[in-house]
Amino acid sequence: MGNHSQRAAGLMGAALGCLPWRAWGATEAASVRLASPMGSTWAWGLAGGMTLLLGLLAVYTLRHYLFSINRLFGTQRHPYASIVSADWPRVTIFVAAHNEEAVIAGCLENLMGVDYPPDRMLVVPVNDRSSDRTREIIDECVARHPGRIRPFHRTGGKPGKAAALKDATETVDTDFIIVFDADYLPSRGLIRRLMAPFTDPEVGAVMGRVIPDNVGANLLTRLLDLERSGGYQVDQQARMNLGLVPQYGGTVGGIRLSALRAVGGWHDDVLAEDTDLTYRLLLGGWRTVYHNRAECYEEVPQNWAVRVRQIKRWAKGHNQAMVRHSLGLLRCRGLSLTERLDGVLLLGVYLMAPLLMLGWVISLLMYFTVTAQVTTPALLLLAFMGHSALGNFAAFFEIAAAVHLDRSHQRVRLLAFNWLGFLVSAVAIFRGVLEQVLLDRLPGKGFQWDKTVRYRAPASRQTPA
Fold first, then answer.
1. Per-residue confidence (pLDDT) for residue 186, from 0 to 100
2. I need a labelling partner for 196 at 20 to 30 A (CA). Which of 10, 258, 398, 440 fits?
3. What is the pTM of this model?
């Protein structure tokens, strides 16, 4: 076997575990012997690292397939979808806004058109230190709808969405709140659908489905539409079906105030207050419900630079929650084993991109520094090819399943382009993790509200019910 063939075989062996193989019924061991000019410790260290990475990737691969198959063929749980009339409780609706002059009017006007009893809901735009026309636009909406909108203009205090919501919550006299970001356009029946699960006293939070409103802008918005479909139509609903851990997403979601206060209220020192709250509610014994038919429309990024900043912020916040809650989650005996495992996997999802990139580096190092003698190369090659095909396809299979469930089959033509979105997200997450570990702890790095750029014209259309 030539030197390059030996290196390639060594790489495949590492990806499959780099452990001794023994042929069925054979008298001679089919083993892998690794060697390197840098020493056997180096060779087996790389092999062990690749084995661990492959194991983690395999777990997430199986998770993707499990969720997809459940959504396509499993029993579907929509326990609150049939509740269309009730003695609806009073609710306060927060609209978080920081320099949102382009979109805030559309959100407020849509909320004025929902079919929830007007005397049972109060809309509170949370204007956090805006320096543009956001305050003026909010006040104009207040004048057009007297008694239905009560603005909360915040001119100081700690920056950040969680800090703003924390201050605004102190003014609330209802038992429930619903939170929207300012670019969201609620559908007519959304508030009823979000409030229906709160008829169950064990429910602490409810999450609806997010659908991009500006899908047709360019390739990026179309790819994000596919990503959102996979995340909500498959991931969130499958976790609901299987009794796992649906995630409160920070917008298009309702919260029971007694549950929020029981777990310590809003934490204003976190980047992802939604993920943090999801796990505090879970550890506190409260249920989070996902309602797939509670649909709301959002504006997704239309250029890659904005998308990169967004995904970096999400990754940092999610990893912060992972550090805070993983150990407590694993120790929580009030949760089932499957809930704990799914919760940990959900917390670790933003580590997969840097670990995958680390795997690419290890692969290159093994190719150039490790040689192997393999007596069963055909078997290794077949297994490696099988893993590459099935493992890499898992996330795309999930998106394809979501497209099928949405009955919008033409969108599947864009599936191949998701490699571009995947690579950009992987690099962005990797950069976010590096910044979080190396730079964000330096003196002078303050906490700030990193707002996503808006593209909608001020006089945007309203979405249909």
1. 96
2. 398
3. 0.87
